[in-house]
Design a protein that fits this description.
single chain; alpha/beta; 9 strands; globular
């Protein structure tokens, strides 16, 4: 008997998008379980540590269909660890949905379907996984894709600036510098960006402003 496609799910929820250029928009979130990295400041550690719920592809698509017209973000954990994620993305695209993929940048992006917006982390040294980024992925970025650097210190900032200067990206890209607010004041990061006249966007996690006490489902 053929096995129906299914994925390990940490949570499914509908909320306000808190990051990327889509911040502020209502969005359907599909958080897949499992991750290949152990970042020091992970804010979704439960996606890798708790027992996941196995959901069929049909169940996941049915959940997304409860919120028609809104973008759908597939996140984690690291969503590209699950083979079935490619079928999930294809199915959502076929249904006319705007699909966002948030990935930690360590796995190849070559199989991500055309039309999916890739929001790719570049891990800075203070994360503890600063050498994890697959630099070949820079060649696979499309004009609508985005890069995100989480900055925890001046050392992280300098590293991110050097990364961008040494790895120039073709065309204009949306690049976010996001402060780890427990360690770096957003205003301080803003001052550094202005002093260096960087063409990046300062990003503060909107969902944490709206719901500071929530640790999931937001």
């Amino acid at each position: 008997m053929k096995t129906l496609p299914a994925l390990d799910i940490a949570e499914l929820f509908f909320s306000i998008q808190g990051e990327s250029s889509y911040a502020g928009q209502p969005c359907v979130f599909i958080r897949l379980a499992g991750c290949n990295l152990q970042c020091n400041f992970c804010d979704a550690r439960y996606a890798n540590e708790e027992v996941p719920t196995r959901r069929s592809l049909a169940e996941i698509l049915a959940f997304a269909a409860e919120y028609p017209g809104f973008p759908v973000e597939i996140t984690g954990g690291e969503p590209l660890l699950q083979e079935e994620v490619y079928q999930l993305m294809e199915s959502l695209l076929a249904g006319g949905r705007r699909v966002l993929l948030e990935t930690n940048g360590s796995l190849p992006l070559d199989r991500v379907p055309a039309g999916v917006v890739k929001i790719v982390d570049v891990k800075c040294p203070d994360s503890g996984t600063g050498e994890s980024f697959d630099r070949n992925n820079l060649l696979l970025l499309c004009p609508e894709d985005e890069l995100k650097f989480v900055i925890s210190s001046r050392d992280d900032y300098n590293w991110a600036v050097d990364f961008l200067r040494l790895q120039p990206l073709p065309g204009r890209r949306i690049i976010h510098f996001s402060p780890m607010t427990a360690l770096l004041e957003p205003g301080t990061l803003a001052d550094w960006i202005l002093a260096d006249r960087l063409g990046v966007r300062l990003q503060i996690q909107l969902h944490k402003v709206l719901w500071p006490e929530a640790d999931r489902g937001r």
